[in-house]
Amino acid sequence: MSLISALLRGVEAKLAEVGGKRVRSIRLAVGLLSGAEPDLLESAFAVLSEGTACEGAQLMIRRPPVRVRCGACGAEVELLELSLRCPKCNGFDLELEGGDELFIEEMEVEFGEPQHPGVREDPEGQ
Ligand SMILES: [Zn+2]
């Protein structure tokens, strides 16, 4: 899966940048509308990370909620599962905000010697 290849390249670039040795864990934000399936991401990661600095790293996937504004009743709600109807008035006049997130939220890096803190990466492209 090319998405994971790109992800691994990004992680390795970051790892080189901070002088880390290997990656312990990666947390991904995967929006409901991103088109990426967490299960598929996990299995692709397991295969593609073999032999890289990410081998054996824990992949955590977070699904941020989608914000929805209803044009009919004005409700503003956050949905954890995608729905085409307003949960308040059952209308279809919904405006979606976000949901297409797909980025590394955080990665934990192992350095040559212990006692180094992990590296945090701030979410971008919100
Ligand atoms: Zn509504």
Explain this structure to me?
The protein is an alpha+beta fold and 126 residues long. The chain folds into two domains: 84 residues, hypothetical protein PF0899 fold (2-Layer Sandwich); 34 residues. The strands form two sheets. A four-stranded mixed β-sheet has the order 2-1-6-7. The protein has a three-stranded antiparallel β-sheet with strand order 4-3-5, with no helix packed on it. A hairpin with an 8-residue loop joins strand 6 and strand 7. The two termini are 24 Å apart. Zinc ion binds next to loops. The site of zinc ion has 8 residues, from loops.
How does the SSE layout of this entry go?
Layout: H1 2-18, E1 22-30, H2 38-48, E2 58-62, E3 66-70, E4 76-79, E5 94-97, E6 102-110, E7 119-120
Parallel strand pairs: 1-2
Antiparallel strand pairs: 1-6, 3-4, 3-5, 6-7
Helix pairs in contact: 1-2
The structure holds zinc ion.
